[in-house]
Amino acid sequence: MQTDCFCCCFFFFHIKTKSIKSTTSPETMSDLFIIPGAVLSTGISFAFSVISYKKYLQSKEKIKIPHFKPGDDLLKEVQKSANKRLYAAVEGKVEPLGKPLKSTFVPECYGVIRKVTTRGQRNPERDEVPFCLLPRGTEARRLWVRVENPLKAEGDYLQEVYRGVKPEDSSGSVPEHTGKVQSVMTGIGDVVMEQGSDETMVLEPPRDGRKFFLFSGRYESVKKRQERKTLTLMLMSFTWAITGCSVFGTLLYTTLNTQKKKN
Fold first, then answer.
1. Which UniProt keywords apply (predicted)?
2. How many angstroms separate the CA atoms of 156 and 177, rounded?
């Protein structure tokens, strides 16, 4: 039955092709293949342009948001914001709220988040302990921001502390990434007040669909990285748009020129 259907389809396609060949000129046959390809290329170019532009806007939004260090200024802004919820960037020093995680491979290396990827594993091993962001230097340390659900955050907030092999398994490389204690981290998300507290703040994933980020390093370095990324996305969007316009212009010119020759 399947063979009969295949033969019928092939016969129909063969007859249809012969019919097209017999009723069209070589130029028209060429157009039948060139025009759909050009339309497809135009659509793909504009689609990539739109995607790049959306990512550009998202990246640009990260640069424009207000940024703070844990302290009185942030506390005042949160308390006077709508629903006491402020979408902002917070830069601080990582401090565990309890016993930190110890590196599996590096002595005297402690962190609050750890990710170990072993060969053959699709999902890396992830561990975390509660931690907060403290102001750096000689600033007041009575105010801090606790980070809620850090594993839900996007961004390059982990540092590679080891890449080697397990002592019991020499078959492949094992990288270990850690959010190190005392390192500087910048978080972007909703800052809210800890329930039952007038001073403790919490950085948590936004409820309105905006992104939650954690980055390794100071806010200024994060901002510069985002500016470079934003510029790249803008150029990509512009390039794809120009490509789409060029293909569309060529398609339009070819079509009009063909119609002119027919007339």
1. Membrane, Transmembrane, Transmembrane helix
2. 10
State the Cα–Cα distance between residues 90 and 70, nearest whole angstrom: 7
Domain that holds residue 175: 62-217
With cut-offs at 50, 70 and 90, classify the pLDDT of residue 184.
Answer: very high
Read off the pLDDT of residues 81-100 as tens digits, 9 standing for 90 and up.
Answer: 888 899 999 999 999 999 99
Yes or no: say if 187 and 152 are a contact pair by the CB < 8 Å rule.
Answer: no
What phi and psi values does residue 173 have, to the nearest 5 degrees? Answer: -75, 140
Distance CA(223)–CA(38), nearest Å, equals 40
Please state the domain count of the chain. 1
Determine, yes or no, domain membership for 15: no
Helix (H) or strand (E) holding 112: strand 110-116
Q: What is the pLDDT of residues 229-248, one digit of tens each?
A: 666 666 666 676 677 677 66
Q: Is residue 190 part of a domain?
A: yes
Residue 6 counted as domain residue: no
> What pLDDT digit, counting tens, does each position of 157-171 carry?
999 998 876 555 555
Average pLDDT over residues 101-120: 88
Neighbouring-strand partners of residue 186: 91, 215
